[in-house]
Design goal:
The protein is α+β, with helices and mostly antiparallel strands. The protein has helices spanning about 35-45, 55-65, and strands at about 1-5, 10-15, 20-25. The chain has a three-stranded antiparallel sheet with strand order 1-2-3, with no helix packed on it.
Amino acid sequence: ALASSDANSAEILVACDGRLIGRLAVGDGLRPEVRETMDQLRALGIAHLEILSGDHAAAVQAVADRLGLQ
């Protein structure tokens, strides 16, 4: 079962025979080169950058905040 953890991850509840036996938090990290790529795009004159995602709004906003995007 999936449960909400925070904006950066999802919590997976693990059960066996109806008993909760564990919890895992999984999430996506930013690729190491993302900031450099954004800087290169800006150097080319592309000043307006946006995130297009099918993820939950809170997760997308958390990534945007980390990248300094509005």
